[in-house]
TrEMBL record:
Organism: Piscibacillus halophilus
Record's protein name: Protein-arginine kinase
EC number(s) recorded for this UniProt protein: 2.7.14.1
GO biological process: phosphocreatine biosynthetic process
Annotated family: Belongs to the ATP:guanido phosphotransferase family.
Activity regulation as described: Appears to be allosterically activated by the binding of pArg-containing polypeptides to the pArg-binding pocket localized in the C-terminal domain of McsB.
Catalyzed reactions per annotation: L-arginyl-[protein] + ATP = N(omega)-phospho-L-arginyl-[protein] + ADP + H(+)
Record function comment: Catalyzes the specific phosphorylation of arginine residues in a large number of proteins. Is part of the bacterial stress response system. Protein arginine phosphorylation has a physiologically important role and is involved in the regulation of many critical cellular processes, such as protein homeostasis, motility, competence, and stringent and stress responses, by regulating gene expression and protein activity.
Top enzyme class: transferase
Domain of life: Bacteria
Domain Phosphagen kinase C-terminal: residue ranges: 24-255
Molecular-function GO terms, alphabetical: ATP binding; creatine kinase activity; protein arginine kinase activity
Length: 354
């Protein structure tokens, strides 16, 4: 398989679309936690009940379509190889927790991979919807429509006073987690990010790495999301998050202007050294690759690097992950072999733009 064909098959179609404020916000995500009424939650360990939930989702929704979300396919964890599960994690279609499930876990994924419904993770359903760029309100509207479609055939666990009932108390109420993935290299370079994160946390929001809770911010990618789900409407939660994200966007843009003015040739040197590393390395580890990709993306956004699309960061941050490398190589790779293969893949990808 050629690299171009692999990219076409591997990258979610929605990732190749540029959204609002895409120089800083890579994606917006809405996730809704829902449970079947009078069915034990997944955390109870009642496997018979969970199997029935899985069978129902397969019977009712496999190969079905809803508006823009065509041909949902139910993917069972038990049918996947470990590397295939990891690929879905790297594409953010499932969580690491779901990947560890056996015969009770599955994901209902739309053809364009914009919608992914995790089945029997922490809750019976985790409805996820992604949009490129800063599109939280649009993502919420579509997620609510999708939620209504499921609710036509599923009676949810719901309490008039507490709202939607969930396995984790922090999700009770709306069951909503709204988040944005942001590229914040200038705030990191100026060390402002270290002061900004605690301030954001004080507002009831949380800042995590690229793969959510417990992950680090590789490539200066940060995920900002709400923590509170009870006591506010879904719309109010999203508006509060949007307000904070807009301030972060403005701070990042000011920081970019400052480093352009103050660092000048040193900034250009850093960016082009990173580009040179990606274009010429014969071996490169994931952390170094993420750092260099971040620098190159910044160079593209600042107009210093031309003729390379912004979406290249989205692509290569996925393509250079361990599972994707092995999927492309079609064999298991040792850590050193992955570093060599990663360097080869990056060089080949950059050649496609020439």
């Amino acid at each position: 398989m050629s690299l171009q064909n692999f990219i076409n098959d591997a990258i979610s179609p929605w990732l190749n679309t540029e959204g609002v404020d895409n120089d800083i916000v890579l994606s917006s995500r809405i996730r809704l936690a829902r449970n079947f009424e009078q069915v034990p939650f997944p955390t109870s360990g009642d496997n018979d009940a969970l199997v029935k939930v899985l069978e129902y989702m397969e019977q009712e929704f496999d190969q079905q379509s809803y508006k823009d979300f065509k041909q949902f396919q139910l993917v069972k964890m038990n049918d996947l190889k470990p590397v295939e599960k990891r690929v879905l994690v790297e594409k953010h279609l499932i969580s690491p927790s779901l990947a560890e499930k056996d015969h009770t876990g599955a994901a209902l994924i739309s053809k364009n991979e914009q919608a992914s419904i995790m089945v029997n993770e922490e809750d019976h359903l985790r409805i996820q919807l992604y949009y490129p760029g800063f599109e939280l309100s649009e993502a919420l509207n579509k997620a609510q429509e999708l939620d209504d479609w499921f609710e036509e055939r599923i009676k949810y666990a719901f309490d008039e006073n507490r709202g939607y009932l969930t396995s984790c108390p922090t999700n009770v109420g709306t069951g909503l987690r709204a988040s944005v993935m942001m590229h914040l290299p200038a705030l990191a370079m100026t060390n402002q990010i270290n002061n900004l994160i605690p301030e954001i946390n004080k507002l009831g929001l949380v800042v995590r790495g690229i793969y959510g809770e417990g992950s680090e911010a590789q490539g200066q990618l940060y995920q900002i999301s709400n923590q509170m789900t009870l006591g506010k409407s879904e719309e109010d939660i999203v508006e509060d998050l949007k307000s904070v994200v807009q301030q972060v966007i403005e701070n990042e843009r000011r920081a970019r202007e400052w480093i352009m003015e103050q660092l000048g040739i040193q900034l250009e040197d850093r960016i082009f050294r990173s580009y040179g590393t990606l274009a010429n390395s014969r071996i490169i580890q994931s952390k170094e690759a993420a750092k260099c990709l971040s620098d190159v993306r910044l160079g593209i956004d600042l107009g210093l690097i031309k003729d390379i699309p912004k979406t290249i960061l989205n692509e290569l941050m996925v393509l250079t992950q361990p599972a994707f490398l092995q999927q492309y190589a079609k064999k298991t790779l040792s850590p050193n072999e992955r570093d060599v293969f990663r360097a080869n893949l990056i060089r080949e990808r950059l050649q496609l733009e020439k």
